[in-house]
Amino acid sequence: MILPSNTERERKSNGAQYIWIFYSFLMCNLILAGAQAFRKKRYGLSALLWLNAFTNLVNSIHAFYMTLF
Questions:
Q1: Cα separation of 30 and 60, whole Å?
Q2: Strand, helix or coil at 7?
Q3: How far apart are CA 27 and CA 17, in angstroms?
Q4: What are the residues whose beta carbons fall under 8 Å from the beta carbon of 51, sequence distance 6 or more?
Q5: How far apart are CA 65 and CA 27, in angstroms?
Q6: Residue 15's pLDDT is what?
Q7: What pLDDT is stored for residue 59 in this prediction?
Q8: What does the angle CA 45 – CA 48 – CA 35 come to, to the nearest 5 degrees?
Q9: Do residues 36 and 6 touch, judged by C-beta distance below 8 A?
Q10: Are 59 and 16 in contact (CB under 8 A)?
Q11: Which of 16, 11, 24, 33 is nearest to 58 (CA)?
Q12: From 26, 34, 47, 58, which residue has the greatest number of CB atoms within 10 Å?
């Protein structure tokens, strides 16, 4: 049996392996923006930003393990 030269992990590692850094940076910014909105008593915006930060946390975990794309 001949195995293909490009395994699935090699095909996914075309530069998309570092996207988790972007998602982590974006998550940190959203947490800070949410805290600032919460201090200004904009609770709806704060909840939306923190929900987006949680989504980016999930995306960064998936991108780190290369299961995002």
A1: 14
A2: coil
A3: 17
A4: none
A5: 17
A6: 61
A7: 83
A8: 60
A9: no
A10: no
A11: 24
A12: 34
